[in-house]
Amino acid sequence: RGEAEYARIAADAAAVADAGAFSLVIEGVVEPLAASITEAVACPTIGIGASARCDGQVLVVDDMLGMFERAARFVKRYDDLAGRIQQAAQTYATEVRARTFPESAHLYGVAGGA
Q1: 45 and 27 in contact (C-beta within 8 Å)?
Q2: Is there a catalytic annotation at residue 27?
């Protein structure tokens, strides 16, 4: 949260990269620090709520597709699957209760045409 912590995180990242890491995951650090680390190390950086300047990004698919009501600050929702699933389940339940599902197209017939 302060300059001393920024310096420690940057030094840790440099040490890990210098030790031969094939990549670094930078999660939940302030954007300028994540960008600085990305510029300073030779290996690729993967951001999780860090900076668009990282070499790549990670989001949990359930979060980005809106499967849960709550999401971390860094999550951008690309859909609301929870809402769509709830609507589909409600439609199914309504059709079953109304006895409009299953229809004949969803049933098996007797062999021989009976």
Answers
A1: no
A2: yes
From the list 63, 60, 6, 66, the residue with the least C-alpha distance to 37 is: 6
The tens place of each residue's pLDDT in the chain, 114 residues long, gives 788 999 999 999 999 999 999 999 999 999 999 999 999 999 999 999 999 999 999 999 999 999 988 888 889 999 999 999 999 999 999 999 999 999 999 999 877 665
Given a contact cutoff of 8 angstroms between Cβ atoms, the answer to whether 34 and 45 are in contact is yes
Assess contact for 74 and 49: CB atoms under 8 A: yes
Structure tokens at 63: 């979060």
Backbone angles phi, psi at 56, to 5 degrees: -155, 175
Helix axes 3-18, 31-40, angle to 10 degrees: 30
Q: How many helical (H) and strand (E) elements, i.e. helices and strands, does the chain have? A: 4, 3
Q: pTM value?
A: 0.73
Point out the catalytic residue in the list 27, 31, 95, 103: 27
Residue 70 tokens read as 């709550």
